[in-house]
Each structure stands twice: as structure tokens, then as C-alpha cells.
Design a protein that fits this description.
This protein is of the alpha/beta class and 195 residues long. It is 51% helix and 9% strand.
């Protein structure tokens, strides 16, 4: 099913590209960078995002092969179009040394097992908890926002060696995390991926 792009979105991307040359990025990296910038109207993401094209290629293939998508909060889920997601925050409980977001990650992992795509746009503790599990993710989009724990959790994600999209600064959030996944959802599957 082809996605119909609204004229406002087309014009927004035209203006983005008029202000920022993204042509040097590899194909999927460019898609992610542009969609994240578009979601936040923040050109600084072009130098703030950290990812590797190989990670995106593998994540894209897993996504289009039907791998589960897990999100940390419903706001991330609401921003992801054309795909059902798993969010266990409503079922989670906090406890000593455990935030509700971290517990939700444990519950989600029990449900989906290894090989999922994880999209974390709100809670640094959700990302920290994911890193303690042997989740073998297809891709982690780790873009939590905030002044407490966000930069540290994203640095830990990068240091983990897991396939990931993250950023260096404190910024992030539900909209940009969802946008990164949507970039992969909207990008066409190549013939090599289907063979």
C-alpha cells in the first residue's frame, strides 16, 4: 500500500532541503535525519543524531518482515503510523529501585522476546532497563528527553554496541522517536530485502 503524502508535508520537506543539504547522508540515514528534523523543526538534529546505515538497513528489514515494535509510552505509539505497537506502561508498577517505565520494559520484553524494534522517546529509565536485558533488539531508537539521565542513557546505548539511533544532546522526545521509526516504515523495501 503506497502512502499518499499531503502537499503540506511535501512543502515542508522542500523547505527543509532548501535550508539543509542532506544529500551526503546514506539513504536510510537521510530518511531518518530528515523525518526527525521535520517532526521537531530543528535543523540541529543533522549533527546531533548518531546512527549507522548498517543498523538502519537491518532494522528496516526486520520492521518490514513483521518484527514487533515496542514503545515506552503511548505518546510514542500515537505518533507511529501504519503499525501496531506494544506498550505495557498501563500494566507496570514502580517499586524500590524500579520506575514504572523500567517495569514496562520488562513486561514488554516478556511479551515480545528478542528481535523487536524498541522506540524509547520519553523515559531514560526505560532505555537503561532495556540495556540490562538480553533483548537482542533488531534496532533501538533511543531518544529520551530530559535534564536527568537522558544524555547518560543515550551514551550507554551507544557504548553497548547495540544497533541504534540516538542523539548526543538532552533533546529528544516522543515525536522525534516516532518520526525515526516512521522514516523506516515509509521507506520502500528494496528488491534485495525481499529475496
Amino acid at each position: 500500500m503506497n502512502r499518499v503524502v499531503h502537499p503540506i508535508e511535501q512543502e515542508s520537506f522542500r523547505r527543509l532541503r532548501a535550508r539543509l543539504d542532506t544529500s551526503h547522508f546514506p539513504q536510510l540515514t537521510r530518511a531518518v535525519v530528515e523525518r526527525v528534523i521535520h517532526s521537531a523543526a530543528d535543523l540541529e538534529y543533522a549533527t546531533d543524531l548518531v546512527t549507522a546505515e548498517d543498523d538502519l538497513v537491518k532494522g528496516h528489514a526486520a520492521l518490514h518482515a513483521g518484527a514487533p515494535v515496542v514503545v515506552d509510552v503511548e505518546m510514542v505509539a500515537a505518533g507511529i503510523t501504519r503499525r501496531t505497537t506494544v506498550c505495557r506502561l498501563k500494566d507496570a508498577r514502580s517499586g524500590p529501585g524500579l520506575t514504572r517505565s523500567a517495569h514496562a520494559v520488562r513486561l514488554a520484553y516478556e511479551e515480545v522476546g528478542p528481535g523487536a524494534l524498541w522506540v524509547i522517546g520519553c523515559a531514560p529509565t526505560a532505555l537503561e532497563e532495556l540495556l540490562t536485558l538480553d533483548a537482542s533488539p533488531a534496532l533501538v531508537i533511543g531518544l529520551p528527553v530530559g535534564f536527568v539521565g537522558a544524555t547518560e542513557s543515550k551514551a550507554a546505548l551507544r557504548a553497548s554496541g547495540l544497533p541504534a539511533v540516538s542523539n548526543v544532546s538532552e533533546k529528544g522526545g516522543s515525536a522525534v522517536a516516532a518520526a525515526a521509526l516512521n522514516a523506516l516504515l515509509y521507506h520502500p523495501v528494496t528488491p534485495e530485502e525481499t529475496s
